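Kindly review these tokens for lecture notes.

. . .
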Amino acid sequence: MLTIDNHRLVGDGVSFRMTPNHGGPFSARYLVFHYTAGSSCDSSVESLCTQKARGSASAHLVLARDGRIVQLAPFNVVTWHAGVSCWEGLTGLNKRSIGIELDNAGRMQRVGEKFVAWFGKEFPAADVLLAEHKHGGGVMPWHIYSEVQLARAAELAQLLVNHYDLQDVLGHEDIAPGRKQDPGPAFPLATIASRALRSQASLTPFVVTSDTLNVRSGPGVSFDPIAPALLRGAVVLLLERVAGWSKVRVERPDGVAGWVNQRFIAPGNRQQTRRTRANPPRYVSG
């Protein structure tokens, strides 16, 4: 089992090597997954611990295909994994997120019947997923992740989300679309994110911060509202988070549950939950 002690990961198969590529102290808001696009965990660790004339990079963790984890910086120190990035109107995600690099060759090229990584290594078809990236570009070969790697990634996501009260679990492809494609379609990001954020929710109270807020049938503006819009100050209970949207339950007799844009809710407290049960949220009439 993995735990965190003084911002350092503790558990079987975990080691620590401080990278010189880091910034100052910070408080994380997000978790971002990447793939290394490298030939091995060890070579990626070396690269992320090397100061370069241009383009020095780092991350908080490197997760090997055999489940080993190398931590390169405490979780309260900025690392350089995001680059030019933006999410929910915030820019510069290095200063807002914990970064995990997964040992994975990434996108490959198909040469006849062979699948070849950019560094020249050939991979068997059993290690390749043919799929189109969610941002398009056609069907391409992608290096699959090992089962133990995916299990460790899910464990890490849940631990970090709960320990640091992180607001979302993202891919580099989400915060730098068009520039980055990692962790790619072979990584089950939506499933890992949903489980981690659901484990955090535990009916946490949140307060509406916008003048009005629609409660929708699904996570996106394409889904229809299913209840009257909530007014500023209304308290809802968090059930689940998915890619910038939160599923909430409105405290009223019919217990309606729906999706809201998570930019417009903020953490509340248990006293507010008790008050809203006595005085249900206000809605836009009409």
